[in-house]
Amino acid sequence: MSHNTFGHLFRVTTFGESHGAGIGCVVDGCPPRLALEAADIQAELDRRRPGTSRFTTQRQEPDTARILSGVMTDDATGRQVTTGTPIAVFIDNVDQRSKDYGEIRDKYRPGHADYVYDAKYGIRDYRGGGRSSARETAARVAAGAIARKVIPGVTIRAALVKMGKLAIDRRNWDWDQIGKNPFFCPDAEAVGRFVHYLDAVRRAGSSVGAVLEVVAEGVPPGWGAPIYGKLDAELASALMSINAVKGVEIGDGFGAAELMGEENADEMRAGNDGRPRFLSNHAGGILGGLATGQPIVARFAVKPTSSILTPRKTVDRAMEETEIVTKGRHDPCVGIRAVPIAEAMVACVLADAFLRHRGQVG
Amino acid sequence: MSHNTFGHLFRVTTFGESHGAGIGCVVDGCPPRLALEAADIQAELDRRRPGTSRFTTQRQEPDTARILSGVMTDDATGRQVTTGTPIAVFIDNVDQRSKDYGEIRDKYRPGHADYVYDAKYGIRDYRGGGRSSARETAARVAAGAIARKVIPGVTIRAALVKMGKLAIDRRNWDWDQIGKNPFFCPDAEAVGRFVHYLDAVRRAGSSVGAVLEVVAEGVPPGWGAPIYGKLDAELASALMSINAVKGVEIGDGFGAAELMGEENADEMRAGNDGRPRFLSNHAGGILGGLATGQPIVARFAVKPTSSILTPRKTVDRAMEETEIVTKGRHDPCVGIRAVPIAEAMVACVLADAFLRHRGQVG
Amino acid sequence: MSHNTFGHLFRVTTFGESHGAGIGCVVDGCPPRLALEAADIQAELDRRRPGTSRFTTQRQEPDTARILSGVMTDDATGRQVTTGTPIAVFIDNVDQRSKDYGEIRDKYRPGHADYVYDAKYGIRDYRGGGRSSARETAARVAAGAIARKVIPGVTIRAALVKMGKLAIDRRNWDWDQIGKNPFFCPDAEAVGRFVHYLDAVRRAGSSVGAVLEVVAEGVPPGWGAPIYGKLDAELASALMSINAVKGVEIGDGFGAAELMGEENADEMRAGNDGRPRFLSNHAGGILGGLATGQPIVARFAVKPTSSILTPRKTVDRAMEETEIVTKGRHDPCVGIRAVPIAEAMVACVLADAFLRHRGQVG
Amino acid sequence: MSHNTFGHLFRVTTFGESHGAGIGCVVDGCPPRLALEAADIQAELDRRRPGTSRFTTQRQEPDTARILSGVMTDDATGRQVTTGTPIAVFIDNVDQRSKDYGEIRDKYRPGHADYVYDAKYGIRDYRGGGRSSARETAARVAAGAIARKVIPGVTIRAALVKMGKLAIDRRNWDWDQIGKNPFFCPDAEAVGRFVHYLDAVRRAGSSVGAVLEVVAEGVPPGWGAPIYGKLDAELASALMSINAVKGVEIGDGFGAAELMGEENADEMRAGNDGRPRFLSNHAGGILGGLATGQPIVARFAVKPTSSILTPRKTVDRAMEETEIVTKGRHDPCVGIRAVPIAEAMVACVLADAFLRHRGQVG
């Protein structure tokens, strides 16, 4: 992962700012002859799209994806397929409302990247956060939709498991619930509590953090690569690169630090498929940087949106002390919309791991 | 980070197995004319060296580093300096005792990478874990000693803050204590508890996990790179790539998920040095993937050593069910020796970030 | 250079096919605060644009470049500048005339990439050559226009020095002539011969090869990087990657193989500027992979366009023997339009070399 | 290719200087379970080894390769095989004779990298040319021996086809002659002329350039990668990175510039193996950056050794004008020993192309 590109054989480069012409990605290295329609990408974008409930930003972006290159109609089947050449996807920005952001041109919003962009580049696209806006993640979701095509046997799903201090009850976990509430929450009983809580947060003009969990099933043993291309290292990098993420853990994660050796290491019995059957999954499906064949389980923490209505102490570009209230249209819990983004990042990491694995060991 | 190389401009490639000829690294892209002696590397290696207390493996490795290339004596000063060409460092393996590992040739140790290496490569260097052994980290420590030379204004220190369920009292934090106890523990009062606890663990033939914290001070604002080369993403990848690490967090980390927006975002006042003075550091010194100028704070979780004396259920290469007791000489808390390793990884990430920053913005 | 991306710190990714929506590039790693207008890019594209004389393809493409990201108006100066974030440029395809290419859907054109794309990918965008079309080079020219901004002190110019067996007279070399004839030819006296010759080639429905020379002046000593990132190796890769290029040489190139040691090595005297003054430039401005401070001189050979009106023996996708005549609108000497493309590639290589040099040595 | 590493999935990093401890390489990404003994590497090194005839440098280096990592004995077969982990190879320097090079500490040798290393790094390992010495190529040859194992169906052979102005007669080409004369010359009749000529050059204390040709047979159609990872671009980069190389061409190369379209494009007939049978090979086995299945043919030009006994004008580090005579033990035609080096580079490029191809398209 480097600057605006990630991946090695399945490589994704993104571009675009919150209030420029649009957001896009170029996916290079995708295998050929995979069926791919704009609708495949659109389906994932619609899951991330803002303005779908009162719990996400009211910015209205249709987020319509166009595929600019890398596909053609296969005359034999009539289906649109990838050709092995770079696939560019572009999403126009529509509802920019630049006027909302006039005040932040000169003031640095606490918790945002305003100051550091100025410190690094000596210039900053202040319109909606510019390149540092979470709007960039739309391009990741588009890339992730393509990545899923590369690894059809793998199922990748994410869920919100904690909002502020409210956690779900894991015994109620039901993946089918994910699409049935505005929080991507797998615990139907927790939804009511979340609605009540987040309404209060929203009315207070505040925001709250969240913890998400992403699970990839169907990854064969051996994907990944020691020593610095470890699958868990790549997942950590990919998830940490999502806006507002402050922590990542695999399997038992920080909980593993509290365990004894005999509690943590997953015992094995003979499986029916020539592989070991693990008796537990504290490892989260990864050992030594390589997939074990068990579900890969990662969790990550999202900080609360820094754009809130409470006045905050800050400085301006002239380093004069001032206060700021971040108006505009913001997510009271930005973690919610991180669900499809996390799935996309994991899909990209796994697609890349698969191609590299196939490259080295056939 | 890819396979056995990490970094972009400051690039580290490591090689070697636990029971082969030795362990080494090649550091490419190091700036020229930096004073560098083997003793600089040795000092760091000695901090990681096994066998220095009863709380680490009793394997006796002198871990003597030789610099094979990339340095010469500067005739003007008489000092040995880097030349800008690749610096290779080699550390001979001495005390291998391969006979200890006969049993694990055919059986897969739970919690280790034995099975997945076989699944990926169809062959596995079973001698002491081969390439997946934590012995590889000696090469990282050597590279880190070189990286520190690249960023002389930056101080990087790590500490053990939790062992199993025992945490330090952060009010007692004193960096000077780090070198005065066998745990790299900054809380002198906690040391007695840790001794008592780890002795019991060791005598039980068991092991325990740990949490470590690493702090980098003196990093100027702007180092790092959006979007996929974010400084926190690179740190997460680097720390997660260390053996047995299962979680990484920056600043408040998972704690940030429980905060409200006004609790989390760090307010700013005007500083004396033309930079903002932050009123808190929930962000851990990184916003939008770029350094803020505050101390960079990362924590990571290390699982308990999987090599323990309790018999464990497992399978062998023929997928027959069996049991295994991992004899040999192991760390009861492998997290302890991760302290110099984590410092080294952070030093490498920051050296690379510095060079890339200088490359792009001068 | 890898797949569809080249460069390390100044990284260019291109996408798009001859008859798709358009052609584009993403330039990542560009320094901030460089003045950049679409017009800067357009000026270079216009030099490459088809249909400007009877000696280039009659395909009419306005090749209008739009900058989609990475720039903003600097409020202080009112000028549009780079922000340090990725700069995406897109050029719509307008005059595609897909019907011209019906026959080549199933037949493999000799000298083209038709067969090998099918062999590799099992599918091929046959419309105008798809991704393998020289139309892709429009994106390179756009990237090159940006690269020139990164290295303002460097002048990069190319010229056609040979068409078929007709060479220019180097004693007549005048850079001012380049823009005054349809061949980018620096020898005014040769132009008449070239016109006469190429008209005959064109009328015969045939095509002819060419040799071009590109010269970069103002490159300071030390840019480049041993051992595998040598400046000449990167130039060779960049120029060889241009469609139809079959050979690259630096300085005396293949002529150097005929020289004796005392004829070839460039002697030095003391210069006025603290640098050596070389008494000759057989080396073409590069020694040991690093710039010497002399003009960098590269030449490259372009094969004749393979699209000609003479019937040619070939096979079709079913591996049946057949003949093909490549109709459509083609350049009788594709080398001519390689002039701005070569300049662009050299500009990108040098911009990248500059940033990496600054990264490593300050 | 970047600094001291080249390749993407089959990655080679080299280190070491002419007069340091030794020369080495780390090969990362090699597939597992390939039989590999030190003797396999030694056989290639012996072909490059200096001091084997009066036509190469009299420096006596046994060039004994040790494999430091990445292999183990396969218990099933008793053979030593690769494990998929990085393979480090080290070659001790033995006959350094540093005293020979005292004079060049302060003076810049014309045609060498002395000045540019100083200009770039502000320091220079003057002992035998340091890192810029062709001694580094021993590590490439070692890596190439490993690369050959990755692509067992491919035969890679190089030959010297021109020495100064003396060319071989291609009608006499016989690969069996390569090992039977000190020039790697495929034309037995030319050997006598070369002996006579090079003896004269050597006695005169001078040197002469050469042209070499390398041919890879058995490369399947489709290896390589558009657009910037073209197989010919990678070969150009790899060959140009060899010391003293000033030009590279593929197939007809610069000769192609003199051809008409109908002369150049290789016609096709149906082959017996489901592939086209080409009626000629002007393309040198590569179209659009991808292998056609025909033999891959590259030629490259090597300049004459710059180390000669004739006094040459130069400057010293203080930029004072002076003269220099390069004593020491030098090759009168450094091109001769480039034969095994070129084969090694081509082997590495093809091994990498194979793994990447397999990664993307299976």
Automatic annotation (TrEMBL), chains A, B, C, D:
Binding annotation for FMN: 131-133, 243-244, 288, 303-307, 329
PANTHER family per the UniProt record, alphabetical: CHORISMATE SYNTHASE
Subunit comment: Homotetramer.
InterPro entries xrefs: Chorismate_synth (IPR000453), Chorismate_synth_AroC_sf (IPR035904), Chorismate_synthase_CS (IPR020541)
Family statement: Belongs to the chorismate synthase family.
EC number per UniProt: 4.2.3.5
Enzyme class: lyase
Catalytic activity: 5-O-(1-carboxyvinyl)-3-phosphoshikimate = chorismate + phosphate
Gene this protein is translated from: aroC
Pathway: Metabolic intermediate biosynthesis; chorismate biosynthesis; chorismate from D-erythrose 4-phosphate and phosphoenolpyruvate: step 7/7
Domain of life: Bacteria
Biological source species: Roseiarcus fermentans
Function according to Swiss-Prot or TrEMBL: This reaction introduces a second double bond into the aromatic ring system.
Lineage: Bacteria, Pseudomonadati, Pseudomonadota, Alphaproteobacteria, Hyphomicrobiales
Cofactor(s) needed for function: FMNH2
Pfam families: Chorismate_synt
PROSITE patterns assigned: CHORISMATE_SYNTHASE_1, CHORISMATE_SYNTHASE_2, CHORISMATE_SYNTHASE_3
GO biological process, one term: amino acid biosynthetic process
Designated name of the protein: Chorismate synthase
